[in-house]
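Hi everyone,

Forwarding the result from last night's run.
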Amino acid sequence: TQTERFLRWGAVVGSTLSSAAGDVAGTEPETPDDPAARLSELLTEVMSLGADLDLDSVLQRVVGAAARLTGATYAALGVLAPDGSLASFFTVGFDPELEDRIGARPRGLGVLGVLVTDPRPLRLDSLSAHPRAVGFPPHHPPMSTFLGVPVTIGSEVFGNLYLTDKPVPFTDEDERVVQALADAAGTAINN
């Protein structure tokens, strides 16, 4: 429900504020990893998503914000087709030439398919070690760490937000921030 989403979003904000409480009042954040800077960017992104009327633009912005806020090298949002495959795929971190060399977009198999059949957050320190890992097509960059979070509209799964290759494992806070973005995206899409 909308109330549950609001409460979950409030928990993320509260947790992030709590993490930032040790910061010196009145100082500017020094790095993008600074909790105060992360909170500020999360709030800016969440508040601005509802103002954008173009769905593709909203989804691309969510992907970019998720990558920036977590430090992931690559991020994607896969929109589900009625049959559970991926109907569209929005990415950050891949240049157009690399995408052309890789070829076809993912279909929602392997680890990406785990979130399709079991739409709950999934965090992995080693993507290739997961039992459902199927590898990558030729020319695809190697990927190690992984965080996947469903994007829902009400109780229906709209798609999944995938992040990979953070230099260190994804954290509980990363998961909460990405879930807040996914929830905001679901609300923006629904409106």
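Strands lie at 74-80, 86-92, 122-124, 146-153, 156-164.

Cheers,
N.
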